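Need fresh eyes. Consider my entry:
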Amino acid sequence: MRCFIAVPLPPATREAVALQTSRLCPRLVGARFVRPQGLHLTLHFFTDLNEAEVALAVASLREGVAGTAAFDVHLGAPGVFPDARRARVLWMGLALGAGELSRLRSRIGVSLRSRGLPVEERPFTPHLTLARFSPPIPVRPDALGLSARDVPGFVADRVTLFRSDLERGGAVHSVLESVPLGGQEA
């Protein structure tokens, strides 16, 4: 099954981001925008895990977050992958919390690797995916008018393993396990 490990966003942050992206719909024809309930900060993605591997991913998640305190997150400037001439992904970076998110991803990655699970090797850029483009299109993220100013920050207080099922209207995410940070109650 398709799964991923991510920091979920609280409703107020998701709604504010959705308001920002709704203004872009007429300008980015053909973009597939992430639905508000699907917004999250991805740490690790798995294309195909069996039940035994899901159990290993849960154990890795628990081990990787152990001793990690909750931390503040504020979204920042927009960007695109791979570049502005042929954008495939539109995203917002992190103005606060990027270092903590990167360290958390690394700790979980060490634990995943120790259990024989795949970990993406390319450099990690902490970001919130807003939209995808297929085929790629030219996009100047600085000219879109996206602003994190009206998006409330939040406390990243848990990390979740989600199952991702692809459906006609987009991916549907189900919580498989959610682990609190900093001694928060589950």
